[in-house]
């Protein structure tokens, strides 16, 4: 989603309304392709793209490089099965942000969905493997091929987040965790829902 060019990252008018800029996703992608050709970047990808937006890039005339990744919200309460399957078909790696849920800041997070790390099933599976609910949530996504990028400022938690490769979830446990899906986003970005390229109005 593009905003009016200038010094402000998220510019607003005198009434507080966000000032948008017409987004040409294909033109932006071509600029990224030029960065790759110039050796400025190793890989290029997208974030929060829905299927329509991905197809726009994939079907672009003269496409040189497909998106390497699509970074989207993904966790046991929002499993994104259709978008994951579409991405796999096109060799696009899904990078899951908020893989252990997110903070409870009402200014930008949907707090109507309960905290992920308090889920009884994740806790019970964690107890079985002497792991935390967070480690189970991370292992779930990693085991289904989603790259996880948990955020923490706590050194101990950062260390814990790496300790997910010494156990595996059973097929039943994977299915049980998949069944937790509520199809509800924590990160809705509703303040920009009137942007022409707001991505979350489509099913996926």
TrEMBL record:
Query: Which molecular function terms from Gene Ontology are attached?
Result: oxidoreductase activity
Pfam name, any one: Aldo_ket_red
Which branch of life, at top level? Eukaryota
Q: Which InterPro entries match?
A: AKR, Aldo/ket_reductase_CS, NAD(P)_OxRdtase_dom_sf, NADP_OxRdtase_dom
What positions does the domain NADP-dependent oxidoreductase occupy?
21-181
The record, for SUPFAM superfamilies, names: NAD(P)-linked oxidoreductase (SSF51430)
Similarity comment text for this entry: Belongs to the aldo/keto reductase family.
Q: What is this protein called?
A: Aldo-keto reductase family 1, member D1 L homeolog
